């Protein structure tokens, strides 16, 4: 028998390819696997022996790859995806640079690699996805019908990589691509609402990292625009309601505007009503509504009852059984609600359960998982809370170890590195407060300094980081008596207060912090202007805490203490009279069951005792 020509070999390969493709659609599963092998062998032989650019082979390879890719979506068999990727690669090799199908071939290969990245978290797959989508976009000039899809795909790839590596340039690139995609779409296009939401989501992500309010304001307006394009009955209406509610809630957290929180609450309730018990996103709506409930109650200075939130999160967890992709998130939400109840009511079983839930969530996020660092931080925080109650050394040691592990997953340049530096510093400071190990405090200060450098002026968390560093310096001053540490604490507290102008929800906290550091400095140096300023700051803080506020009694004690100090210096009777009155008022707010009642009794006794020499009367 003579040798076969290349033409015959290709014909045989294509025949085998076509036959196997038909067989695999009709035969039992085990036969389908056999025909799949035949397809692979036939296509490889044709690729090796056939001339480049054969007219039928690229389309047959691509069709086979599309079938395997679709079967992966249906059955979740990753080997199907692996084979589809190889066939997509083979198709691309056969298409010259100017072939009209090359852009779609690049997009198909990019999509399959993106899907594999979501399955296995292999960063090289994601990097290649971006390069392929870039190459496809270059082949689709302005005006091309597929340019919008290509812009959107590339933006999504950058967004995924930002979540993995936290590199801000990736997020910036995604935002610019989202803007370009939006410009391509006419106002009447069916995908316009989705495109508006994509841009809004990335702007909100950038706000979270950089704290630029204009990003958040724009995200809210974009989400409003998207909702208008999803009228009642629209399949995406519940998602649009949820997006707008989330962005309004974020703005409330920054500016404390109650109307934003109230509107977010109504939007989440409406979204929940559209997501019946069988809806896949119902658990998400339950979680969102629970978080809104907590914020609304805390904002109105009413003691938050977390029982309702815990019940909602338990229901949400039932909707995410073992194996569900959202189970780890539901475990975390329930754990956080239990931790909130523990912080209010001190029920140890709540914090114990929260820790176990966080451990379960961490197991579902193994090394390489994009949310592993978050789970490490959540578990560390719960362990630290339990340590503060029970003083078990192993809890704080494990918390520090977990925070160190989270920090390693957020190298320099990662968007969440500053929060990991801050969290590790807090746990080291907690251990210092218990055991007095100065190396822990020194390291906490260095970590807080590094965290502050990563949040420039204007960043939403800068004030918190200023406060944390100031507190560390005050602790070190108390240990070593170095005045430069105390001076540094005063200046940091001043800067933090400037970031909370009149009308800000948390201004009272920063008034109190600056007052405390100034009073400490007065006690060291005796500069009366420091004491006078501390008194005025404490008065300002008390005015912001109306009757019924949980922090009012502490603020009354603080003002009483600074007035008592001035009385000791200058003997002004009105100061000690006011101090006694304030301490009496604070005591009334702390009934016998209050954990700080003994402190209030002590403060009142000291102020009454200070009055005796001045009046000559016994108590």
Strand content: under 5%
Oligomer: single chain
How far do the termini sit from each other?
123 Å
Low-confidence spans = 1-10, 20-36, 300-304
- CA-based shape: elongated
- Helix proportion range: over 70%
Radius of gyration: 31 Å
One letter per element, helices H and strands E, the order comes to: HHHHHHHHHHHHHHHHHHHHHHHHHHH
Number of helices: 27
Largest sheet, strands/sense/barrel: none
Question: Structural class, from helix and strand content?
Answer: mainly alpha
Overall mean pLDDT: 85
Number of strands: 0
Signal peptide: 1-20
Organism: Suillus fuscotomentosus
InterPro entries: TPR-like_helical_dom_sf (IPR011990)
Protein name: TPR-like protein
Walkthrough of the structure:
Helices cover 77% and strands 0% of the residues. The protein contains 27 helices and no strands. Residues 1-10, 20-36 and 300-304 have low confidence and may be disordered. With 619 residues, it is mostly helical.
Summed up:
With 619 residues, the protein is an all-alpha fold. Helix content is 77%, strand content 0%. The protein is elongated, with a radius of gyration of 31 Å.
Key attributes of the depicted protein:
single chain; about 625 residues; mainly alpha; 27 helices; disordered N terminus
């Amino acid at each position: 028998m003579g040798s076969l020509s290349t033409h015959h070999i290709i014909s045989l390969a294509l025949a085998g390819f076509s036959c196997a493709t038909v067989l695999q659609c009709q035969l039992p599963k085990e036969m389908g696997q056999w025909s799949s092998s035949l397809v692979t062998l036939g296509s490889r032989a044709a690729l090796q022996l056939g001339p480049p650019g054969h007219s039928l082979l690229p389309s047959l390879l691509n069709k086979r790859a599309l079938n395997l890719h679709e079967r992966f979506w249906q059955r979740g068999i990753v080997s199907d995806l692996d084979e589809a990727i190889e066939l997509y690669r083979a198709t691309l090799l056969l298409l010259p640079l100017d072939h009209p199908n090359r852009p779609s071939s690049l997009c198909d290969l990019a999509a399959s690699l993106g899907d594999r990245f979501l399955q296995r978290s292999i960063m090289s797959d994601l990097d290649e996805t971006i390069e392929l989508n870039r190459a496809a976009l270059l082949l689709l000039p302005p005006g091309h019908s597929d340019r919008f899809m290509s812009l959107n795909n590339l933006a999504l790839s950058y967004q995924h990589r930002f979540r993995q590596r936290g590199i801000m340039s990736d997020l910036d690139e995604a935002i610019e691509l989202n803007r370009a995609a939006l410009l391509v779409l006419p106002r009447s296009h069916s995908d316009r609402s989705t495109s508006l939401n994509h841009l809004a989501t990335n702007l909100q992500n950038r706000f979270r990292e950089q704290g630029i309010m204009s990003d958040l304001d724009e995200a809210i307006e974009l989400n409003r625009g998207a909702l208008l394009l999803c009228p009642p009955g629209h399949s995406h209406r519940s998602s649009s309601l949820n997006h707008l509610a989330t962005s309004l809630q974020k703005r409330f957290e920054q500016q404390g505007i109650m109307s934003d929180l109230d509107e977010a609450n109504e939007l989440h309730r409406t979204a929940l009503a559209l997501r019946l018990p069988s809806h896949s996103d119902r658990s998400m709506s339950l979680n969102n509504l629970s978080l809104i409930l907590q914020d609304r109650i805390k904002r109105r200075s009413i003691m938050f009852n977390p029982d309702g939130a815990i019940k909602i999160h338990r229901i949400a967890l039932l909707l995410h059984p073992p194996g569900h992709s959202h189970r780890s998130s539901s475990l975390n939400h329930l754990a956080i609600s239990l931790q909130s109840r523990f912080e209010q009511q001190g029920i140890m079983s709540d914090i114990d359960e929260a820790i176990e839930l966080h451990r379960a969530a961490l197991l579902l996020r193994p090394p390489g998982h994009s949310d592993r660092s978050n789970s490490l931080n959540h578990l560390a925080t719960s362990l630290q809370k339990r340590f503060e109650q029970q003083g078990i050394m192993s809890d704080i040691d494990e918390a520090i170890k977990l925070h160190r592990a989270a920090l390693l997953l957020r190298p320099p340049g990662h968007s969440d590195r500053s929060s990991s530096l801050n969290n590790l510093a807090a746990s080291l400071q907690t251990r210092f407060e218990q055991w007095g190990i100065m190396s822990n405090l020194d390291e906490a200060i260095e970590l807080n300094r590094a965290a502050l450098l990563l949040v420039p002026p204007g960043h939403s968390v800068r004030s918190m980081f200023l406060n944390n560093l100031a507190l560390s310096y005050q602790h070190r001053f108390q240990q070593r008596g170095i005045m430069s540490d105390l001076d540094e604490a005063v200046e940091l507290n001043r800067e933090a207060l400037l970031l909370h102008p009149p009308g800000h929800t948390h201004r009272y906290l920063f008034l109190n912090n600056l007052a405390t550091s100034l009073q400490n400095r007065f006690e060291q140096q005796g500069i009366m202007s420091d004491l006078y300023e501390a008194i005025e700051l404490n008065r300002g803080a008390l005015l912001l805490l109306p009757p019924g506020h949980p922090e009012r009694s502490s603020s009354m004690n603080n003002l009483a203490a600074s007035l008592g100090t001035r009385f000791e210096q200058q003997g002004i009777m009105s100061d000690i009279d006011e101090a006694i009155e304030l301490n009496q008022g604070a005591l009334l707010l702390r009934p016998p069951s209050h954990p700080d009642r003994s402190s209030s009794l002590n403060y009142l006794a000291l102020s009454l005792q200070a009055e005796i020499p001045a009046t000559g009367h016994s108590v």
